[in-house]
Amino acid sequence: MFDHMNGLWSGYMGIFWVLLLVLVVWLLLRDRRGGSRRHTSAREVLDQRYARGEIDREEYLRRLDDLRKD
């Protein structure tokens, strides 16, 4: 009886380690692809700076024109 339980316990531990390894690999791959991190475009940064009042309208329009040229 104990041999059967020992084998069953070993099976559960094996499943646990495989699932843990899959979780770690998934988290690493997710971070590489940008998963929860979002890249902000230059236009979005410019819009945010203008909205916060860091740059005035003239500066905003000048930089926006520069971005459109590229």
Describe the structure.
By secondary structure, the protein is mainly α. The protein folds into two domains: 37 residues; 31 residues, no CATH class. It has three helices and no strands. Helix 2 packs antiparallel against helix 3. It is rod-shaped, with a radius of gyration of 26 Å. The termini are far apart. The model has no long low-confidence stretch (mean pLDDT 85).
Features:
70 residues; mainly alpha; 2 domains
Structure summarized in a few sentences:
With 70 residues, the chain is an all-alpha fold. The chain is built from 3 helices and no strands. The protein has helices at residues 2-32, 42-52, 57-69.
* Tally of separate domains: 2
- How many helical elements? 3
Mean pLDDT score, rounded? 85
Biggest β-sheet description: none
Which spans of ≥5 residues are poorly predicted at pLDDT below 50?
none
What is the N-to-C succession of helices and strands? HHH
- Gyration radius, to the nearest Å? 26 Å
Going by helix content, strand content and strand pairing, the class is: mainly alpha
Quote the beta fraction. under 5%
- How many beta strands in the DSSP annotation? 0
Helix content: over 70%
Shape: rod-shaped
Span between termini: 74 Å
